[in-house]
Design brief:
Elements lengths: L1 H14 L2 H17 L3 H4 L1 H10 L12 H12 L6 H10 L3 H25 L2 E2 L5 E2 L2 H9 L4 H35 L3 H16 L2 H30 L4 H14 L12 H16 L6 H5 L7 H8 L1 H20 L9 H12 L4 H32 L4 H17 L3 H24 L1 H14 L1
Helix pairs in contact: 1-20, 2-7, 2-13, 2-20, 4-15, 5-11, 5-16, 5-18, 6-13, 6-17, 7-8, 7-12, 7-13, 7-15, 7-16, 8-9, 8-20, 9-10, 9-18, 9-19, 9-20, 10-18, 10-19, 11-16, 11-18, 12-16, 16-17, 17-18, 18-19
Length: 446
Protein backbone atom coordinates (compact mmCIF):
# COMPACT_ATOMS: atom_id res chain seq x y z
CA UNK A 1 0.00 0.00 0.00
CA UNK A 2 2.88 2.35 0.81
CA UNK A 3 4.46 1.67 -2.57
CA UNK A 4 1.15 2.34 -4.32
CA UNK A 5 0.67 5.55 -2.33
CA UNK A 6 4.14 6.75 -3.31
CA UNK A 7 3.39 5.95 -6.95
CA UNK A 8 0.11 7.85 -6.82
CA UNK A 9 1.86 10.81 -5.16
CA UNK A 10 4.36 10.87 -8.03
CA UNK A 11 1.58 10.64 -10.64
CA UNK A 12 -0.41 13.36 -8.86
CA UNK A 13 2.60 15.68 -8.87
CA UNK A 14 3.02 15.10 -12.59
CA UNK A 15 -0.62 15.36 -13.72
CA UNK A 16 -1.11 18.55 -11.67
CA UNK A 17 2.27 19.90 -12.76
CA UNK A 18 3.17 22.67 -15.22
CA UNK A 19 1.94 20.77 -18.30
CA UNK A 20 -1.62 20.42 -16.94
CA UNK A 21 -1.72 24.02 -15.74
CA UNK A 22 -0.52 25.24 -19.15
CA UNK A 23 -3.21 23.11 -20.86
CA UNK A 24 -5.95 24.51 -18.63
CA UNK A 25 -4.79 28.11 -18.94
CA UNK A 26 -4.04 27.69 -22.65
CA UNK A 27 -7.53 26.38 -23.38
CA UNK A 28 -9.05 29.34 -21.54
CA UNK A 29 -6.89 31.80 -23.46
CA UNK A 30 -7.71 30.09 -26.79
CA UNK A 31 -11.46 30.30 -26.10
CA UNK A 32 -11.20 33.89 -24.84
CA UNK A 33 -9.42 34.98 -28.04
CA UNK A 34 -11.71 32.96 -30.30
CA UNK A 35 -14.77 34.48 -28.61
CA UNK A 36 -13.18 37.95 -28.70
CA UNK A 37 -13.65 38.32 -24.95
CA UNK A 38 -17.43 37.94 -25.10
CA UNK A 39 -17.70 35.94 -21.82
CA UNK A 40 -15.82 38.68 -19.97
CA UNK A 41 -17.50 41.58 -21.80
CA UNK A 42 -20.98 40.13 -21.29
CA UNK A 43 -20.68 39.79 -17.51
CA UNK A 44 -23.64 42.07 -16.73
CA UNK A 45 -25.68 40.44 -19.48
CA UNK A 46 -24.93 37.12 -17.78
CA UNK A 47 -26.31 38.41 -14.48
CA UNK A 48 -29.47 39.63 -16.21
CA UNK A 49 -29.93 36.18 -17.78
CA UNK A 50 -29.32 34.57 -14.39
CA UNK A 51 -32.12 36.56 -12.72
CA UNK A 52 -34.42 35.97 -15.71
CA UNK A 53 -33.55 32.27 -15.44
CA UNK A 54 -35.25 31.93 -12.06
CA UNK A 55 -38.63 31.62 -13.76
CA UNK A 56 -40.15 28.34 -14.87
CA UNK A 57 -40.60 28.12 -18.65
CA UNK A 58 -41.83 25.55 -21.13
CA UNK A 59 -38.48 25.37 -22.88
CA UNK A 60 -36.84 21.89 -23.02
CA UNK A 61 -34.98 20.80 -19.89
CA UNK A 62 -35.53 19.61 -16.33
CA UNK A 63 -34.47 22.53 -14.09
CA UNK A 64 -34.37 26.32 -14.46
CA UNK A 65 -31.17 28.00 -15.72
CA UNK A 66 -30.69 29.50 -12.25
CA UNK A 67 -31.09 26.09 -10.60
CA UNK A 68 -28.45 24.70 -12.97
CA UNK A 69 -26.06 27.48 -11.93
CA UNK A 70 -26.86 26.92 -8.25
CA UNK A 71 -26.15 23.19 -8.62
CA UNK A 72 -22.82 23.91 -10.32
CA UNK A 73 -21.95 26.48 -7.63
CA UNK A 74 -22.87 23.97 -4.93
CA UNK A 75 -20.02 21.83 -6.24
CA UNK A 76 -17.45 24.59 -6.78
CA UNK A 77 -18.04 26.77 -3.70
CA UNK A 78 -16.42 24.35 -1.30
CA UNK A 79 -13.31 23.68 0.73
CA UNK A 80 -11.21 25.19 -2.07
CA UNK A 81 -12.60 28.62 -1.17
CA UNK A 82 -11.36 28.26 2.40
CA UNK A 83 -8.53 25.72 2.56
CA UNK A 84 -7.45 26.10 -1.08
CA UNK A 85 -7.01 29.87 -0.91
CA UNK A 86 -5.05 29.57 2.33
CA UNK A 87 -2.78 26.93 0.80
CA UNK A 88 -2.14 29.11 -2.27
CA UNK A 89 -1.05 32.01 -0.05
CA UNK A 90 1.02 29.75 2.23
CA UNK A 91 2.95 28.25 -0.69
CA UNK A 92 2.97 31.10 -3.22
CA UNK A 93 2.61 34.22 -1.08
CA UNK A 94 -0.03 36.96 -1.45
CA UNK A 95 0.90 37.30 -5.15
CA UNK A 96 -0.68 33.89 -5.80
CA UNK A 97 -4.10 35.54 -5.49
CA UNK A 98 -3.41 37.76 -8.52
CA UNK A 99 -2.71 34.65 -10.61
CA UNK A 100 -5.84 33.04 -9.17
CA UNK A 101 -7.77 36.02 -10.55
CA UNK A 102 -6.12 35.65 -13.97
CA UNK A 103 -7.07 31.97 -13.98
CA UNK A 104 -10.68 32.86 -13.17
CA UNK A 105 -10.92 35.53 -15.89
CA UNK A 106 -9.81 33.16 -18.67
CA UNK A 107 -11.69 30.34 -16.91
CA UNK A 108 -14.93 32.22 -17.56
CA UNK A 109 -14.47 31.49 -21.26
CA UNK A 110 -13.75 27.83 -20.49
CA UNK A 111 -16.88 27.46 -18.37
CA UNK A 112 -18.89 29.31 -21.02
CA UNK A 113 -17.67 26.94 -23.74
CA UNK A 114 -18.41 23.87 -21.62
CA UNK A 115 -22.03 24.91 -21.04
CA UNK A 116 -22.63 25.91 -24.67
CA UNK A 117 -21.45 22.49 -25.85
CA UNK A 118 -23.34 20.68 -23.06
CA UNK A 119 -26.70 22.17 -24.08
CA UNK A 120 -25.98 21.92 -27.81
CA UNK A 121 -25.16 18.18 -27.72
CA UNK A 122 -27.38 16.97 -24.85
CA UNK A 123 -29.77 14.02 -25.09
CA UNK A 124 -32.69 12.54 -23.17
CA UNK A 125 -32.21 9.27 -21.30
CA UNK A 126 -34.55 6.27 -20.93
CA UNK A 127 -36.54 8.14 -18.24
CA UNK A 128 -36.93 11.22 -20.44
CA UNK A 129 -34.51 13.33 -18.40
CA UNK A 130 -32.04 15.65 -20.14
CA UNK A 131 -28.43 14.47 -19.87
CA UNK A 132 -25.24 16.02 -21.15
CA UNK A 133 -21.69 16.99 -20.39
CA UNK A 134 -18.25 16.20 -21.84
CA UNK A 135 -19.03 12.53 -22.54
CA UNK A 136 -21.97 13.56 -24.74
CA UNK A 137 -20.35 16.46 -26.55
CA UNK A 138 -17.29 14.31 -27.23
CA UNK A 139 -19.39 11.49 -28.67
CA UNK A 140 -21.98 13.61 -30.49
CA UNK A 141 -19.70 16.46 -31.49
CA UNK A 142 -16.50 14.62 -32.45
CA UNK A 143 -18.10 11.43 -33.79
CA UNK A 144 -17.90 7.67 -33.28
CA UNK A 145 -14.10 7.53 -33.52
CA UNK A 146 -13.89 9.52 -30.28
CA UNK A 147 -16.21 7.32 -28.18
CA UNK A 148 -13.19 5.97 -26.29
CA UNK A 149 -12.39 9.50 -25.10
CA UNK A 150 -15.97 10.02 -23.93
CA UNK A 151 -15.78 6.73 -22.02
CA UNK A 152 -12.45 7.76 -20.46
CA UNK A 153 -13.94 11.02 -19.17
CA UNK A 154 -16.98 9.23 -17.72
CA UNK A 155 -14.78 6.64 -15.99
CA UNK A 156 -12.37 9.17 -14.48
CA UNK A 157 -15.23 11.41 -13.34
CA UNK A 158 -17.18 8.55 -11.73
CA UNK A 159 -14.17 7.54 -9.65
CA UNK A 160 -13.14 11.13 -8.84
CA UNK A 161 -16.66 11.94 -7.62
CA UNK A 162 -16.39 9.52 -4.70
CA UNK A 163 -13.21 11.24 -3.57
CA UNK A 164 -13.31 14.98 -4.19
CA UNK A 165 -17.10 15.15 -4.12
CA UNK A 166 -17.93 12.73 -1.33
CA UNK A 167 -15.58 11.07 1.17
CA UNK A 168 -13.10 13.95 1.36
CA UNK A 169 -15.97 16.37 2.04
CA UNK A 170 -17.65 14.29 4.77
CA UNK A 171 -14.24 13.73 6.38
CA UNK A 172 -13.66 17.51 6.52
CA UNK A 173 -17.03 18.05 8.23
CA UNK A 174 -16.46 15.28 10.79
CA UNK A 175 -13.06 16.79 11.67
CA UNK A 176 -14.62 20.22 12.23
CA UNK A 177 -17.31 18.84 14.57
CA UNK A 178 -14.86 16.56 16.35
CA UNK A 179 -12.31 19.32 16.95
CA UNK A 180 -14.73 22.11 17.90
CA UNK A 181 -17.64 20.33 19.60
CA UNK A 182 -16.27 16.83 20.39
CA UNK A 183 -18.99 15.23 18.24
CA UNK A 184 -18.13 11.57 17.42
CA UNK A 185 -17.26 11.04 13.77
CA UNK A 186 -19.80 8.22 13.39
CA UNK A 187 -22.62 10.53 14.51
CA UNK A 188 -21.58 13.24 12.05
CA UNK A 189 -21.40 10.58 9.34
CA UNK A 190 -24.93 9.33 10.09
CA UNK A 191 -26.44 12.83 10.06
CA UNK A 192 -24.64 13.76 6.83
CA UNK A 193 -25.61 10.51 5.13
CA UNK A 194 -29.26 10.98 6.14
CA UNK A 195 -29.26 14.59 4.89
CA UNK A 196 -27.67 13.67 1.56
CA UNK A 197 -30.05 10.72 1.11
CA UNK A 198 -33.11 12.90 1.75
CA UNK A 199 -32.07 15.21 -1.09
CA UNK A 200 -30.63 12.95 -3.80
CA UNK A 201 -33.38 10.31 -3.57
CA UNK A 202 -35.70 12.90 -5.11
CA UNK A 203 -33.59 13.23 -8.25
CA UNK A 204 -32.32 16.34 -9.98
CA UNK A 205 -35.51 18.37 -9.40
CA UNK A 206 -35.31 18.02 -5.61
CA UNK A 207 -31.55 18.56 -5.65
CA UNK A 208 -32.01 21.74 -7.71
CA UNK A 209 -34.74 23.05 -5.39
CA UNK A 210 -32.40 22.60 -2.41
CA UNK A 211 -29.31 24.10 -4.04
CA UNK A 212 -31.15 27.17 -5.39
CA UNK A 213 -32.03 28.06 -1.78
CA UNK A 214 -28.92 26.76 0.00
CA UNK A 215 -26.21 28.21 -2.27
CA UNK A 216 -27.27 31.90 -2.13
CA UNK A 217 -27.76 31.69 1.65
CA UNK A 218 -24.40 30.06 2.35
CA UNK A 219 -22.51 32.38 -0.02
CA UNK A 220 -24.13 35.54 1.36
CA UNK A 221 -23.53 34.58 5.01
CA UNK A 222 -19.89 33.72 4.35
CA UNK A 223 -19.17 36.83 2.24
CA UNK A 224 -20.93 39.13 4.76
CA UNK A 225 -18.95 37.52 7.59
CA UNK A 226 -15.70 38.11 5.72
CA UNK A 227 -16.79 41.67 4.88
CA UNK A 228 -17.39 42.37 8.58
CA UNK A 229 -13.87 41.18 9.41
CA UNK A 230 -12.50 43.49 6.71
CA UNK A 231 -14.52 46.44 8.02
CA UNK A 232 -13.05 45.84 11.49
CA UNK A 233 -9.58 45.81 9.91
CA UNK A 234 -10.27 48.43 7.23
CA UNK A 235 -6.94 50.18 7.72
CA UNK A 236 -5.05 47.10 6.53
CA UNK A 237 -7.14 46.36 3.42
CA UNK A 238 -5.44 48.79 0.98
CA UNK A 239 -2.01 47.42 1.91
CA UNK A 240 -3.31 43.86 1.48
CA UNK A 241 -4.54 44.63 -2.04
CA UNK A 242 -1.23 46.33 -2.84
CA UNK A 243 0.66 43.26 -1.61
CA UNK A 244 -1.35 40.98 -3.90
CA UNK A 245 -0.38 43.05 -6.97
CA UNK A 246 3.25 43.76 -6.05
CA UNK A 247 4.11 40.22 -4.97
CA UNK A 248 2.58 38.74 -8.13
CA UNK A 249 5.52 40.13 -10.11
CA UNK A 250 8.32 40.32 -7.53
CA UNK A 251 7.82 37.28 -5.30
CA UNK A 252 7.41 37.40 -1.53
CA UNK A 253 10.26 37.73 0.96
CA UNK A 254 10.42 35.47 4.01
CA UNK A 255 8.63 36.97 7.01
CA UNK A 256 7.38 35.53 10.29
CA UNK A 257 6.57 31.89 9.70
CA UNK A 258 6.41 32.36 5.92
CA UNK A 259 9.41 30.86 4.13
CA UNK A 260 9.24 33.15 1.10
CA UNK A 261 8.20 32.42 -2.50
CA UNK A 262 9.35 33.46 -5.96
CA UNK A 263 7.23 34.56 -8.91
CA UNK A 264 7.08 31.04 -10.35
CA UNK A 265 5.69 29.72 -7.05
CA UNK A 266 3.07 32.47 -6.99
CA UNK A 267 1.97 31.63 -10.53
CA UNK A 268 1.99 27.87 -10.01
CA UNK A 269 -0.03 27.79 -6.80
CA UNK A 270 -2.32 30.64 -7.81
CA UNK A 271 -3.27 28.87 -11.03
CA UNK A 272 -3.50 25.39 -9.45
CA UNK A 273 -5.66 26.46 -6.51
CA UNK A 274 -7.78 28.70 -8.71
CA UNK A 275 -8.65 25.76 -10.93
CA UNK A 276 -9.17 23.51 -7.89
CA UNK A 277 -11.69 26.03 -6.59
CA UNK A 278 -13.71 26.97 -9.70
CA UNK A 279 -13.26 23.70 -11.68
CA UNK A 280 -13.12 25.53 -15.03
CA UNK A 281 -11.92 22.95 -17.55
CA UNK A 282 -12.52 19.86 -15.43
CA UNK A 283 -15.82 19.13 -17.17
CA UNK A 284 -18.00 18.80 -14.07
CA UNK A 285 -20.22 21.92 -14.28
CA UNK A 286 -21.53 21.31 -17.84
CA UNK A 287 -23.22 18.13 -16.55
CA UNK A 288 -25.50 20.35 -14.45
CA UNK A 289 -26.00 23.01 -17.13
CA UNK A 290 -27.09 20.36 -19.65
CA UNK A 291 -30.29 19.88 -17.63
CA UNK A 292 -31.30 23.56 -17.82
CA UNK A 293 -34.64 24.54 -19.35
CA UNK A 294 -33.46 26.48 -22.37
CA UNK A 295 -33.46 26.32 -26.13
CA UNK A 296 -30.34 28.47 -26.36
CA UNK A 297 -26.88 27.01 -25.63
CA UNK A 298 -25.37 30.52 -25.61
CA UNK A 299 -27.88 31.87 -23.09
CA UNK A 300 -27.00 29.06 -20.70
CA UNK A 301 -23.32 29.66 -21.40
CA UNK A 302 -23.43 33.25 -20.16
CA UNK A 303 -25.19 32.04 -17.00
CA UNK A 304 -22.65 29.24 -16.50
CA UNK A 305 -19.61 31.53 -16.71
CA UNK A 306 -20.91 33.42 -13.65
CA UNK A 307 -20.02 30.37 -11.58
CA UNK A 308 -16.31 31.03 -12.08
CA UNK A 309 -16.72 34.75 -11.36
CA UNK A 310 -18.74 34.22 -8.17
CA UNK A 311 -16.56 31.38 -6.89
CA UNK A 312 -13.13 32.93 -7.41
CA UNK A 313 -13.43 36.67 -7.95
CA UNK A 314 -15.91 37.11 -5.10
CA UNK A 315 -15.76 34.28 -2.54
CA UNK A 316 -12.06 33.37 -2.84
CA UNK A 317 -11.06 37.04 -2.83
CA UNK A 318 -12.89 37.65 0.43
CA UNK A 319 -11.06 34.76 2.09
CA UNK A 320 -7.72 35.98 0.72
CA UNK A 321 -8.19 39.57 1.89
CA UNK A 322 -9.06 38.40 5.40
CA UNK A 323 -5.95 36.19 5.54
CA UNK A 324 -3.63 38.95 4.26
CA UNK A 325 -5.20 41.98 5.99
CA UNK A 326 -5.09 40.33 9.43
CA UNK A 327 -1.43 39.36 8.97
CA UNK A 328 -2.21 35.68 9.56
CA UNK A 329 -0.67 34.72 6.19
CA UNK A 330 2.85 34.98 7.63
CA UNK A 331 2.12 32.81 10.69
CA UNK A 332 3.37 29.58 9.11
CA UNK A 333 0.06 27.70 9.29
CA UNK A 334 -1.81 26.57 6.19
CA UNK A 335 -5.11 25.17 4.92
CA UNK A 336 -8.37 25.64 6.79
CA UNK A 337 -6.40 26.22 10.00
CA UNK A 338 -4.86 29.38 8.47
CA UNK A 339 -8.28 30.68 7.38
CA UNK A 340 -9.72 30.01 10.87
CA UNK A 341 -6.75 31.77 12.48
CA UNK A 342 -7.23 34.79 10.19
CA UNK A 343 -10.97 35.12 10.88
CA UNK A 344 -10.42 34.68 14.63
CA UNK A 345 -7.65 37.30 14.63
CA UNK A 346 -9.78 39.73 12.66
CA UNK A 347 -12.93 39.17 14.72
CA UNK A 348 -12.18 37.37 18.01
CA UNK A 349 -15.02 35.10 19.07
CA UNK A 350 -17.40 34.66 16.13
CA UNK A 351 -14.64 34.82 13.48
CA UNK A 352 -13.68 31.17 13.80
CA UNK A 353 -17.32 30.12 13.57
CA UNK A 354 -17.61 31.73 10.14
CA UNK A 355 -14.95 29.34 8.84
CA UNK A 356 -16.54 26.36 10.58
CA UNK A 357 -19.95 27.26 9.12
CA UNK A 358 -18.41 27.71 5.68
CA UNK A 359 -16.60 24.38 5.75
CA UNK A 360 -19.67 22.43 6.87
CA UNK A 361 -22.24 23.98 4.53
CA UNK A 362 -19.85 24.20 1.58
CA UNK A 363 -18.91 20.53 2.00
CA UNK A 364 -22.55 19.41 2.31
CA UNK A 365 -23.56 21.27 -0.85
CA UNK A 366 -20.56 19.82 -2.70
CA UNK A 367 -21.66 16.28 -1.80
CA UNK A 368 -25.11 16.99 -3.22
CA UNK A 369 -23.90 18.40 -6.54
CA UNK A 370 -21.18 15.83 -7.10
CA UNK A 371 -23.69 13.03 -6.47
CA UNK A 372 -25.47 14.26 -9.60
CA UNK A 373 -22.25 14.53 -11.59
CA UNK A 374 -21.16 11.02 -10.65
CA UNK A 375 -24.64 9.62 -11.23
CA UNK A 376 -24.71 10.99 -14.78
CA UNK A 377 -21.22 9.75 -15.66
CA UNK A 378 -21.98 6.31 -14.18
CA UNK A 379 -25.24 6.25 -16.16
CA UNK A 380 -23.29 6.96 -19.34
CA UNK A 381 -21.19 3.82 -18.74
CA UNK A 382 -23.75 1.41 -17.26
CA UNK A 383 -27.14 2.75 -18.37
CA UNK A 384 -30.10 4.10 -16.36
CA UNK A 385 -30.40 0.90 -14.27
CA UNK A 386 -27.36 2.03 -12.26
CA UNK A 387 -29.02 5.18 -10.86
CA UNK A 388 -30.69 3.70 -7.74
CA UNK A 389 -27.74 1.46 -6.72
CA UNK A 390 -25.44 4.41 -7.32
CA UNK A 391 -27.41 6.66 -4.95
CA UNK A 392 -27.33 4.00 -2.24
CA UNK A 393 -23.57 3.54 -2.67
CA UNK A 394 -23.10 7.33 -2.57
CA UNK A 395 -24.89 7.61 0.79
CA UNK A 396 -22.83 4.73 2.25
CA UNK A 397 -19.63 6.44 1.06
CA UNK A 398 -20.65 9.64 2.88
CA UNK A 399 -20.70 7.73 6.18
CA UNK A 400 -17.47 5.85 5.44
CA UNK A 401 -15.70 9.10 4.56
CA UNK A 402 -16.65 10.63 7.91
CA UNK A 403 -15.03 7.85 9.96
CA UNK A 404 -12.11 6.73 7.76
CA UNK A 405 -8.50 7.80 7.17
CA UNK A 406 -8.50 9.17 3.65
CA UNK A 407 -4.89 9.78 2.63
CA UNK A 408 -5.02 7.05 -0.04
CA UNK A 409 -8.52 8.01 -1.22
CA UNK A 410 -7.41 11.63 -1.56
CA UNK A 411 -4.47 10.59 -3.76
CA UNK A 412 -6.68 8.50 -6.07
CA UNK A 413 -9.26 11.30 -6.32
CA UNK A 414 -6.55 13.89 -7.00
CA UNK A 415 -5.18 11.87 -9.91
CA UNK A 416 -8.63 11.08 -11.35
CA UNK A 417 -9.67 14.73 -11.03
CA UNK A 418 -6.76 15.77 -13.22
CA UNK A 419 -7.27 12.92 -15.68
CA UNK A 420 -10.94 13.82 -16.24
CA UNK A 421 -9.81 17.27 -17.38
CA UNK A 422 -7.72 15.92 -20.27
CA UNK A 423 -10.57 14.51 -22.44
CA UNK A 424 -12.61 17.63 -21.72
CA UNK A 425 -9.83 20.01 -22.75
CA UNK A 426 -9.24 18.07 -25.97
CA UNK A 427 -12.94 18.36 -26.80
CA UNK A 428 -13.06 22.08 -25.95
CA UNK A 429 -10.16 22.82 -28.32
CA UNK A 430 -11.50 20.65 -31.16
CA UNK A 431 -15.08 21.91 -30.76
CA UNK A 432 -14.05 25.52 -30.20
CA UNK A 433 -15.18 26.53 -33.71
CA UNK A 434 -18.69 25.25 -32.86
CA UNK A 435 -18.75 27.48 -29.77
CA UNK A 436 -17.54 30.47 -31.81
CA UNK A 437 -20.17 29.91 -34.52
CA UNK A 438 -23.09 29.53 -32.09
CA UNK A 439 -21.94 32.61 -30.16
CA UNK A 440 -21.66 34.82 -33.26
CA UNK A 441 -25.08 33.70 -34.48
CA UNK A 442 -26.70 34.47 -31.10
CA UNK A 443 -25.19 37.90 -30.52
CA UNK A 444 -25.70 38.98 -34.13
CA UNK A 445 -29.43 38.63 -33.45
CA UNK A 446 -29.47 40.42 -30.07
Amino acid sequence: METLSNLLSTISGWVWGPVMLILLLGTGIYLTLGLRGIPQRKLFYGFSMMFAGRKQTKEPGDITPFQALATALAATVGTGNIAGVATAIHLGGPGAIFWMWVTAIVGMATKYGEAVLAVNYRETNAEGAYVGGPMYYIRNGLGANWKWLAFAFALFATVAAFGIGNTVQSNSVSQVFRDTLNVPSWLTGLVLAAGVFAVIIGGVQRLARVTEKLVPIMAIIYVLGAALVLVLNAGEVPAAIGLIFSDAFTGTAATGGFAGAGIIMAIRFGVARGIFSNEAGLGSAPIAHAAARTNSPVRQGVVAMLGTFIDTIIVCTMTALVIIATGAWSSGTTGAQLSAEAFTTGMPGPGGWIVSFGLVIFAFSTMLAWSYYGERTAEYIFGSKVITPYRVLWVIAVFVGAIAQLDFVWLVADVMNALMAVPNLIALVLLGPVVFKLTRAYFNKT
